[in-house]
Amino acid sequence: MTKNSTQPSCVLCETDGGLVIWSGPTCRVIDANDPNHTGLTRVVWSAHIAEMTDLTTEHQLFIMQVVLTVEKVMREHLNPLKINLASLGNFVSHLHWHVIPRWANDASFPDSIWSLATRTTDQTAARRSATGALLPTYHDRLREKLTSDFGDSKV
Q: Can you give the pTM of this predicted structure?
């Protein structure tokens, strides 16, 4: 568990928020373990801040480099039809980016993953299973690339 601040009731300050793939001094990359959106990866800023403009320019560029590295490795190893990037913070006011692999047969495609599902769990089970089989290699390659580009992981 990561203790990043004294902010009350912030799940991203009180916990890692998922399976930590890589962690550096300013942010971590996690698999969100979302059962409906296999492969959903988050880049979480360590300090409790809400907006990108709360970061210095150097830190803004750094977190975007991490997000884009996640996207690149995700494309190479999970081969989604599309990748969505989102930084919402509507429920958790702690800066984090969602890197979301999308397929034509996922639960709500082409709408956002937060939209009502248009396909049943049974219809999306094969996609989730196939993607789930790729996750160990994706995690390993992502950890290797992030470590290579940004330094040793604390994981």
A: 0.91
